[in-house]
Structure formats: C-alpha cells, structure tokens
Amino acid sequence: MNKKRAILLLLAIFSVFSACKKDYLSFDYNDGNITGEDVWASDLHTRGFLNNCYGGMLARYDLGDGSLLAAASDEAVNSNPNGAIVVFNNGTWGPLRTIDDQYANMYNHIRRTNLFLENAATSGIAPISDIPKLMGEAYFLRALYHFELMKRYGGIIIANKSFNPGEDLNLPKNSFEEVVNQIVADCDAAAASLPDVTADLSSENKGRATKSAALALKSRTLLYAASPLNNAANDAAKWQKAADAAKAVIDMNKLVLLTQAQLPNLWNYTALPFNAEVIMATTANNINSVELANAPISYNAGRGRTNPTQELVDAFEMRTTGKPISDPTSGYVATNPYANRDPRLALFIVTNGSTFKSVNVETFVGGKDNNVNNGNTTKTGYYMRKFLTEANFWGTGTQTLSRKPWVLFRYAEILLNYAEALNEAQGAVPEVYTYVNMVRNRVAMPALPLGLTKEQMRERIQNERRVELCFEDHRFYDVRRWNKGVQYFNVPVSGMRITRSGSTLTYLRFEVEPRVFSEKMNRFPFPQAELNRATKLVQNTDW
C-alpha cells in the first residue's frame, strides 16, 4: 500500500469513528470507505482503533469559557457570572438543563472499547504477543468510562458488549453495586496484562494505561463505594476493600512523591520523567490557554476565571504548628493572614503580595489585579496558581506554550485514599499517620498530632484532600460521596476584601455569592432525551 492510500484509509477510519456520536448504542461501524473487516485485518488499523478509544479521557481544564469544576464547589467562584458552570450553584440545572453530563459521550467510547475487545484476539495485530497488553488497555478504558458515568449518576446501564441495531436497547439501569463490581473486574483484567509502568517513554506511548493506572482506578472506585453516600450501613468491610486496593498500588514500589520544588511541574511536563508522581494523564498538545483563562487580569490580559474562595484559603493550616487557623494556638495572625501558612497555599493560590511572573500581585481594592472596570477582575480577592506555567506567554506577539496534560491519577491521591479507607476500617492506627504524613512532610508540614480519634483523623484527612487535591475535580465529588453537600455547598461562599491606606492593609471577609444544594444533587439527573429514548432507565430520585 502506498503512502497516499494509507493516509486516505486513516482519514476514512477517523470519519467513521466520529460518526458514532449519532447513536452511542446502535452505531454501525461498517459505513464509510472502509469496512470493519478491513480494520481488524490490519495491524495498523486495529492499533489505530484502540488509539481512538482513548478519546474519552477527559481533560478538565475548561468546562466552558475557561471554567473548572472547582467553581461548582466551595473551592472557587467563576469570574464570569454568565458562565455555564453557575447552573450547578444556583439550583437551575436538571434533566432539561444539563452540564458536564457526559452520558452519550461515555457510552460512545465504551462501545468502541467493546468492539476492540470483541475483535482484538482474531485481528491482524502483530506480533500476537502484543494482544494481551492492548486488550488490557481496553479493559482499563472501559472501566474508566463506566466510572465516569457511575460517579455522576450512581447506578447506570452496564455495557460490557457492543450492541447491534436489532437488539432491544430500552434497558433498565444496573444497581450501583453491580456497576462497581463491573469496574473492579475490568480493572483486575487490565492489571493482569499491563506493565507496571510505561517502559517506552516515547511520545506515542505517553498516556497509555499501565498496571498502576488500573489499580489506581480500582482504588478510587472502591473508595467511592465505601463512602457514606453509597454505604449507608457503614460496612467496615467495604472500607477495608478500599484500603487494600490503595495499598496494592503503594506496594508496587514504582511511584514517588515529588519534592516541594518539583510539585508545580506535575501539570507542566518539561523537566520531569513522565511517571514520577503521575500515574495516568491525558495526552496533550503545547498550549497556553489555561494561563490565558486563569492568570490575574494585569498579566497579558489574563481572564482570571477561577477565583479561589476564602473557605479554601482557610483550609491551609499553619506551617509552623501544623494547626488549623481556627485554633487560637495555631499562630495565625489575622492582620498578616498569608504568613507562615502551609507552603501549598503559595503554590496553588495567588494572594495579595505574592509574586506572579516576577511581578507583585495587587488584589487589594483598586490594585492592578482588582480593577472594578475590568469584568474579569477577581470576585474573591484571589486567583488560581495551580496548573499555570509562568514561563508561558499569551499576549500580543510571539506565543510561549507548554505541554499540559490533565492528571487523572497521582500518587498523593493514592496515599490519601489509603489513609482515609484504613481509618474508617480500623481507626487511627499508626499506618494512617504514616501515609497522611508522607503527603504533608514533602512540603515541610508538621506531622499530625498523635492521639487523634477516628473522627478527628477523618476531619484531618478530609482537609488534607481539600488542600492537596484542590482544583483537580476531587472536591466536587468528595463532598458528595461524604454526603456533606448541604453542609458545604448549601451556604454562601466568601472572599477577602483588602483595602490599603498608605502601607497599612485591612482585611475584611465578605460574602461573594449564595449557593444552592439539596440531597438530590448528590447524583446528576439523567438527560431527559435519554429517558425519552429508554423509558426503563428511570430518573434519579427527586429529579
């Protein structure tokens, strides 16, 4: 086959895959310029089909006009009051007004992985010794896409086969437990045939599934399954299963925590090996759109979209004592609120007086980064720093870009998964301290005090997740699985109004916007269009 013919065939395959969006269960992949038999007969095309299966991995830097899911939780406010993300916060979302539902998208990609799994063993893949590994990748992806649905909707329709147009597609949803079992089974199947880490770090293999990724997904799945939202009886055995799953990743001895100085590079792969703390991340192009969307307004016309809340800032403890700022013995000084705080505050959030792109930030009223005449100005007195590469340039002139994949799983999460699950299963045993303190110590935070009760340890672990994993899509779902949405999401969020008189700064906490949350919002509503098509699906409670 000549080069021109090969290019035409690959373009044809791409057009066929794109066509599947029309119906995620009954898509016929035999239309277009190339048949299914042609695909599976070719090593190149079969591998290309699997590559296309990765397309459902979500990069979460922009859910619309630069917004992050953080702005749909108590982590942040979106500076654009008309952004789509606000429907999560004002109670106006529902079956007819969905956002980030991903229902059809995930089933599209599940069907692709099923087609690969059903055909790979008899395909033209060469050498055939590659088949188990490639099927392992597909099992991981099928598990991941079911998890994306499960964490949104709870019980969903399990799709462990491709569906033919003649089949009855009006199916009832499976129970939450059945979905968990399916995901775990696929994770186990993937882990059994995947390498520990990606041995070949060439660009075409970056972002491929590994054993550690499969086990990390299993860990997260079982943690969700053990949590109060899904474990009303507080079955300790479910917590122990979640702990065991996280420990399996730890016991591989393949992963390390980055140092404090390296930590910002997790989201900017320029100077680190691909798998250092990162377990799994999406592929990515070189971009500067994240900086443009979120940088302070005075920096090359940054749009400052993600404004951290005062609630999130307050969660960062004191560096010198390791105590919450609410503790009168912590050393917190209200007139100098950002001094001696957990170093992650400066790494993840831009505060007044900090340095960004080698220039001092001014978020006090009337400062260059708090200008009421600019519609994008901070609504809380803060800007997000995490994810931003300060070397990037996005203003007029030559653009500077960096590669910025979305990190799906990283080692710090696994350590916190283990600590949380083990504490719930066994109480605040020494191992719980060990793994929480590993995360704290890498940024020079003091170890947790000895003698904590199970309940006290729970609060410290939940706060550690809030701080360490901020803006990474965890808080939105963590609060839901803990069944604490009414406590944290049904109250107004706050900011810090800073005024300057000469060299004196005055700090005043203020309410930024109200928030609405009810118990039904622990689950997403199924889109009405899907219910119309499959009447047996049944809407989630109270939607």
Biggest pleated sheet = 2 strands, antiparallel
Estimated radius of gyration: 24 Å
Envelope shape: globular
The computed structural class is mainly alpha
Tally the helices.
Answer: 17
Proportion of residues in extended strands? 5-15%
Q: Topology as H/E string?
A: HHHEHHHHHEEHEHHEEEEEEHHHHHEEH
The total strand number stands at: 12
Structure description:
This protein is mostly helical. The chain is about 35% helix and about 10% strand. It contains 17 helices and twelve strands. It has helices spanning about 5-20, 35-40, 45-55, 105-120, 130-155, 175-195, 210-225, 235-250, 290-295, 310-315, 345-350, 410-425, 430-440, 455-470, 475-480, 485-490, 530-535, and strands spanning about 75-80, 280, 285, 305-310, 350, 355, 360, 385, 400-405, 405-410, 495-500, 505-515. Helix 6 (about 175-195) packs antiparallel against helix 7 (about 210-225) and helix 7 runs antiparallel to helix 8 (about 235-250). The longest helix is centred in the first third of the chain and has 23 residues, at about 130-155. The chain is globular and about 75 Å long. The protein starts with a helix and ends in a 10-residue tail after the last helix. Mean pLDDT is about 90; it is low at about 1-30.
